[in-house]
C-alpha cells in the first residue's frame, strides 16, 4: 500500500493520532500536498457513502472528520502563502444550523493563500453574524458562506440576502455540496465555486 493509500485508509478509519505522521511520510515519499489532500477528500466521500448506507453512524463520521483535520494541519503551512500582500479581508463561515467545517476550512486556506486576510467565524453562523464581522473588521471585500446540508440552504439564502442588504459593496461567494450555480444566482450571491481551489480563483476575480 502506498503512503497516500495509507493516509486515505486511516482517515476513513478515524485514526487521528496516526494520520499526521502518515501525511508527513507521504510528503517525504514525494507526494504533493494537493495529492494528499485529494486522497483525504476522497476518504470523506467514502465515509459519507457508508453513512448513507447505514454502515456507520454520526460518531464514526465525526472521528473521520477529526482525523482529516489533523492531516490538513500538517499540509496547511505548505499550502498557505506568506501573507506579504493583501487583496483585502475575507470573512468566512458555515451558515446557521450547519456544523460541517472541513470544506469551509479548505476554502479558507485556499482564499488566504490567494492573498486575502482571513476572518473565520466558524460554524453555525447566523446571517447577522456575517454583517457584524464586516463592520468589526477593516477592508472587508468578500464574504464566503459555506453550506453542506440541503436543510440549511434557506440559511444560506438568508445570509446572502442579509449581507447584500446591509453591505451591498461587499461581494458574497457561496458553495458547498448541495449548492449549484443556479441556486447561487437565484439567492443573489455574486459568485459560486464548486471546490476550494476554484473558490480562491473566484475570490480574486470578485475582489479585483
Ligand atoms: Co454530515 N452530512 N451530517 N457530518 N457529513 C453529509 C454532508 C452528508 C452528505 C452525509 C450523507 O448522508 N451521505 C449528509 C447531508 C445530506 C443532505 O443534506 N442532503 C450529512 C448529514 C445528514 C448530517 C447530519 C444531519 C447527520 C445526523 O445528525 N443525522 C448531521 C448534521 C449536523 C449539522 O450540521 N447540524 C451531520 C453531522 C456531521 C458530523 C458533525 C458528524 C461531521 C462533520 C464534522 C466537521 O465538519 N467537523 C459530518 C461529516 C464528516 C460528513 C461527511 C461524511 C463529510 C463532509 C466533509 O467534510 N467532506 C458528508 C458526506 C460527504 O461530503 N460526502 C456529510 C469533505 C470536504 C472537503 O468536502 O465539505 O463538500 P465538502 O467541501 C468541498 C466542497 O463542497 C466545496 O469545497 C470543499 C473542498 O473542495 N465547498 C465550498 C464547501 N464550502 C464551500 C464554500 C465555497 C466554495 C466551495 O465558497 C464560499
From TrEMBL:
Alphabetical list of CDD domains matching this protein: corrinoid_protein_B12-BD
InterPro entries: Cbl-bd_cap, Cobalamin-bd, Cobalamin-bd_sf, Met_Synthase/Corrinoid, Meth_synthase_dom
Key word Metal-binding present: yes
Gene Ontology terms, MF aspect: cobalamin binding; metal ion binding; methionine synthase activity
Classification of source organism: Bacteria, Bacillati, Bacillota, Clostridia, Eubacteriales
Keywords attached to this entry: Cobalt, Metal-binding
Record-annotated B12-binding N-terminal domain positions: 1-87
Gene that encodes the chain: mttC14
Domain B12-binding: 87-208
SUPFAM superfamilies (alphabetical): Cobalamin (vitamin B12)-binding domain (SSF52242), Methionine synthase domain (SSF47644)
Keyword hit for Metal-binding: yes
GO BP, one annotated term: homocysteine metabolic process
Signal peptide: none
Protein name stated in the entry: Corrinoid protein MttC14
GO-annotated cellular components: cytosol
Highest taxon, organism lineage: Bacteria
Amino acid at each position: 500500500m502506498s503512503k497516500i493509500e495509507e493516509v486515505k485508509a486511516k482517515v476513513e478509519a478515524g485514526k487521528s493520532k496516526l494520520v499526521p505522521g502518515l501525511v508527513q511520510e507521504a510528503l517525504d515519499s514525494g507526494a504533493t500536498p494537493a495529492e494528499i489532500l485529494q486522497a483525504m477528500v476522497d476518504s470523506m466521500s467514502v465515509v459519507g457513502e457508508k453513512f448513507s448506507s447505514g454502515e456507520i453512524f454520526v460518531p464514526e463520521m465525526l472521528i473521520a472528520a477529526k482525523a482529516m483535520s489533523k492531516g490538513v494541519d500538517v499540509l496547511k503551512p505548505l499550502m498557505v502563502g506568506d501573507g506579504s500582500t493583501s487583496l483585502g479581508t475575507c470573512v468566512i463561515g458555515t451558515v446557521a444550523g450547519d456544523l460541517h467545517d472541513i470544506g469551509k476550512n479548505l476554502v479558507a486556506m485556499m482564499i488566504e493563500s490567494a492573498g486575502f486576510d482571513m476572518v473565520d467565524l466558524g460554524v453555525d453562523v447566523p446571517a447577522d453574524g456575517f454583517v457584524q464581522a464586516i463592520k468589526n473588521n477593516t477592508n472587508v471585500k468578500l464574504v464566503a458562506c459555506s453550506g453542506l446540508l440541503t436543510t440549511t440552504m434557506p440559511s444560506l439564502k438568508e445570509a446572502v440576502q442579509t449581507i447584500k442588504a446591509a453591505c451591498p459593496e461587499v461581494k458574497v461567494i457561496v458553495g458547498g455540496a448541495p449548492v449549484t450555480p443556479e441556486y447561487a444566482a437565484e439567492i443573489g450571491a455574486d459568485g459560486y465555486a464548486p471546490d476550494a481551489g476554484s473558490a480562491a480563483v473566484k475570490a480574486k476575480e470578485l475582489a479585483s
